[in-house]
Amino acid sequence: MFTSRSIQYAGSLAAPISRRVGYLGGLRLMATESHAPIKSRSKAAAAGPTTYSALIARLDLKFEDPKTMEQVCTHKSYEQGRLACNDRMQWVGKRVLNLFVGEHLAAKYPNLSVEMLQDLQHAYFGLSSLAEVGRHFGMQPALRWESVVKEAPEVGLTKVLGKSVQALVGAVYQEQGALAAKDFVHKHILGTRALDVESIMQIKNPKLMLVALTKEKGLPRPVARILKETGRFTSSPVFVIGVFCGAKMIGMGFGSSLKMGEYRASKDALIKHYAKEIKDFNFPTIGEGEEADVTFFPPKYQDSAARA
Amino acid sequence: MLTFRLPNVLNEVVRAHRDQFIRQTKPKNGVGVFVFPCRKLVFNYCERSGSSKSMMEYLQKSAIDFAKENPQIEVVVQPRPSRHPIIRAFYTNGYQKTKCVRKCSVDEIPEVVKSLRDHSGHKLRRWNKYVISDTPSVRGIYSPFHVNEVHSISDLKPKN
């Protein structure tokens, strides 16, 4: 009677693979004896010894030790914080991330008010958005953490994942310096998303706000004029209204009534003003590193300039 | 004498509750930088069964080279006794794909591995449009056949 260990293979397969345990390049071989039976998909999806080096390679990072990545993905809740966790890295990384994101947003949108910039930053670079970035990296299966609620193991995942991304930025900053961190943030976090500024703004009274804005800028008082209309006395009229400052049209909106069109046109004018983007700009952090000969010309802080 | 100043209307910024703006904006892969979608490949084989023979040969011959060439993929080799050999792929968006290689020869397995590696992780779906854009144009995509002034080669001036 043959047992599994006594079967001999002809040719190149001299010994069963199960006898060889260890790391070969990027492979992880597990012994049949010590391996628990494969229960479910989640077992196969768990983190292993090569997860962190694969993560480093996927993100094109230059950490010398995969242990750094392991620390980045370890939350303090894992093993009650006895192992190396990402606490401090997250603290530093959050501030580094917010620096690069903040200077980018402040330079890109010169007309946005401070509260709107804050809302924009929270919406696109807050913890839940960073959690999406972390999922995109494939960090979720690599996380080591424990939920506060034992019955619901997924509670708190978003926060932990977001913090791990912040910790990753902190790790890049501490290991490779500010320029590498800036490069990482710009490539992976800033560069991959399109920001929709319009959704951030909640304008309650656009006509009044537009009048105040044009007065402040010294422009003539806005006047609404009909550009196109159809079906005025029918059940479904359409009016296209434009808001003019003198001879220049600053906003356009449509509606089923004249008032509605004017409201939308004023809103459009306000959005065009506040969400104005600057395409080419330099950052204050450009003076460091190899491009030290490039000088930084700060933009005028148009939003906070003195009122006329 | 007291002067009355009207409040600055422009300071009346309405701040909605912060959680209202929790945006699940997904990063667009490839826009700033590309993150490889396939994150893990698990090779399962059985030592005794005949269907795993070509799989075992592949594992001994080319699997390590494959793992070295693709450092961004976590390659795991696990025995799975009394089952057909399978290759299981895990992707960054949570998708999983499994391919049974019991009938494949030694030359066919690398092709299966390659197809699993190159998969994007999204389910196969039918795209009804030939251009998918965040900023769709109102008047449609440009077509050179539907313009008034058709460009012809005789319009080019000779180099003199």
TrEMBL record, chain A:
It holds the Pfam family DSRM_MRPL44. CDD domains: DSRM_MRPL3_like (cd19873), RIBOc (cd00593). GO terms for molecular function: double-stranded RNA binding; ribonuclease III activity; structural constituent of ribosome. It comes from the Eukaryota. One of its GO terms (cellular component) is mitochondrial large ribosomal subunit. One of its GO terms (biological process) is RNA processing. Residues 52-177 form the RNase III domain. Signal peptide: none annotated. It is found in: Mitochondrion. InterPro entries: Ribosomal_mL44_DSRM_fung, Ribosomal_mL44_DSRM_metazoa, Ribosomal_mL57, RNase_III_dom, RNase_III_sf. Keywords: Mitochondrion, Ribonucleoprotein, Ribosomal protein. Belongs to the ribonuclease III family. Mitochondrion-specific ribosomal protein mL44 subfamily. This is Large ribosomal subunit protein mL44. It comes from Coemansia guatemalensis.
TrEMBL record, chain B:
GO terms for molecular function: structural constituent of ribosome. InterPro entries: Ribosomal_mL43 (IPR039927), Ribosomal_mL43/mS25/NADH_DH (IPR007741), Thioredoxin-like_sf (IPR036249). Residues 47-120 form the Ribosomal protein/NADH dehydrogenase domain. Keywords: Mitochondrion, Ribonucleoprotein, Ribosomal protein. One of its GO terms (biological process) is mitochondrial translation. GO terms for cellular component: mitochondrial large ribosomal subunit. The keyword Ribonucleoprotein applies. It holds the Pfam family L51_S25_CI-B8. Belongs to the mitochondrion-specific ribosomal protein mL43 family. This is Large ribosomal subunit protein mL43. The gene is MRPL51.
